[in-house]
Amino acid sequence: MEQMRASGFPEGFLWGSASAAYQIEGGWKEGGKGMTNWDAFVRIPGKTYKATTGDVAVDHYHRYKEDIALMAEMGLKTYRFSVSWARIFPEGTGEVNEEGMAFYQDIIDECLKYSIEPMVTIYHWDLPQALVDEYRGWESPRIIDDYVQYAKTLFSRFDGKVKYWITLNEQNIFTSLGWLTAQHPPGKFDDQKMFYQVNHHAFMAHAKAVLAYRQMGGKGQIGASFAYTPSYALDCRPINAMAKANYDDLKNYWWMDVYAYGRYPVAAMTYLKKKGIAPDMADGDEEILRQAAAQITFMGVNYYQSCVCEYNPMDGATPYGTMNTTGVKGSAQELGMPGIYKNPANPYLLTTDWDWSIDPSGLQFCCREITSRYALPIVISENGLGAFDKKTEDGQIHDEYRICYLKEHIKALGEAVEEGCQVLAYCTWSFTDLLSWLNGYQKRYGFIYVDREEEEGGTLDRFRKDSFYWYKKVIETNGKVL
Ligand code: BGP
Question: Is 30 considered catalytic here?
Answer without folding.
Answer: no
